[in-house]
Automatic annotation (TrEMBL):
<keyword id="KW-0413">Isomerase</keyword>
<comment type="function">
    <text>Key enzyme of fatty acid beta-oxidation. Able to isomerize both 3-cis (3Z) and 3-trans (3E) double bonds into the 2-trans (2E) form in a range of enoyl-CoA species, with a preference for (3Z)-enoyl-CoAs over (3E)-enoyl-CoAs. The catalytic efficiency of this enzyme is not affected by the fatty acyl chain length.</text>
</comment>
<dbReference type="InterPro" id="IPR001753">
    <property type="entry name" value="Enoyl-CoA_hydra/iso"/>
</dbReference>
<dbReference type="Pfam" id="PF00378">
    <property type="entry name" value="ECH_1"/>
</dbReference>
<dbReference type="InterPro" id="IPR029045">
    <property type="entry name" value="ClpP/crotonase-like_dom_sf"/>
</dbReference>
<keyword id="KW-0007">Acetylation</keyword>
<protein>
    <recommendedName>
        <fullName>Enoyl-CoA delta isomerase 1, mitochondrial</fullName>
    </recommendedName>
</protein>
<keyword id="KW-0276">Fatty acid metabolism</keyword>
<comment type="subunit">
    <text>Homotrimer.</text>
</comment>
<dbReference type="GO" id="GO:0005759">
    <property type="term" value="C:mitochondrial matrix"/>
</dbReference>
<keyword id="KW-0443">Lipid metabolism</keyword>
<keyword id="KW-0496">Mitochondrion</keyword>
<comment type="pathway">
    <text>Lipid metabolism; fatty acid beta-oxidation.</text>
</comment>
<dbReference type="GO" id="GO:0004165">
    <property type="term" value="F:delta(3)-delta(2)-enoyl-CoA isomerase activity"/>
</dbReference>
<keyword id="KW-0809">Transit peptide</keyword>
<dbReference type="GO" id="GO:0006635">
    <property type="term" value="P:fatty acid beta-oxidation"/>
</dbReference>
Amino acid sequence: MYSRTMLKVRTLSNNLKMYGSTSSNFVNVSVNDKSGVAIVTMQREPVNSLNLELITQLKTALSDLERNKCRGMILTSASKSVFSAGLDIMEMYKPNQERVRNFWLSLQDLWMTLYGCSYPSVAAINGHSPAGGCLLSMSCEYRIMLPNFTIGLNETKLGIIAPSWFVATMKNTIGFRKAEMALTLGFLFTTEEALKVGLIDEVASSKEDAIAKADKFIGQFAKIPPQPRTISKLMLRSKDIETLRKTKEQDLQAFLQVVNDPKTQKGLELYLESLKQRKA
Ligand SMILES: CC/C=C\C/C=C\C/C=C\C/C=C/C(=O)SCCNC(=O)CCNC(=O)[C@H](O)C(C)(C)COP(=O)(O)OP(=O)(O)OC[C@H]1O[C@@H](n2cnc3c(N)ncnc32)[C@H](O)[C@@H]1OP(=O)(O)O
């Protein structure tokens, strides 16, 4: 039913080529011919950490879906155990200044595109989803997660602060009080805990079940005229999108200041080591 790559993800734009990147395909888009619903699969092994290329390709895929008037979008992962490990720490560790700038601006763009897309969006969370992975999930309208994984904004545990638009997205998803607790603790919720707190909407028994449930959620909008649907969604979401649009440069400078702080660099080094040691 879902035909692979009917909507082709464009290869990297020229401005990325100057960093010597290869145009690997980190995003697969398949569209159900009957329903017009697209499945967008992140496929950057091993953990879908969000580097500049994955972020750019996701943004391109979502914008293409918008242009092609898709009926709905399901965001998922090709991995069996990780939805997304969040931002690629290697983009922030000893960064090339021009690339890290592009990285952050592209992440802002991706969030504004996903959070404000007109089509119904569902995250089929088939693996762990910390930090930036949680942001992507929360930016969708509906979340379905498989058991025995974790999700949350764990930034404070890493000694860093989630940007204001990450915070706004969580507040809009689970409410002020629960967001305050989750953010200050850097809490990673298990699937069951996430369901209880409203961070996810349903639990699925398998990826196939998650896709079926996502299709069902999106199917409800077949009877709703698209324009009132989109306007209602944007009435709720556009304030936070506009806030970031207006403060993009300020937000970038705040990020660059943190990333370039020697203390952050030391912290990143230790964190990378700890990730590697967990395996040993
Ligand atoms: C830290 C940022 C500092 C400064 C930024 C300034 C301001 C704040 C800006 C933004 C907020 C930040 C948002 C983020 O998203 S930061 C990223 C947070 N992510 C995490 O903490 C998750 C870390 N990863 C894990 O917990 C596990 O990998 C996971 C549970 C996802 C999967 O576990 P599994 O056992 O399946 O795999 P691993 O063996 O752990 O990993 C495989 C491989 O991948 C590497 N890896 C994992 N996560 C990342 C990552 N986020 N970035 C880069 N690389 C990652 C891991 O080291 C392994 O590598 P290797 O040993 O070479 O195989």
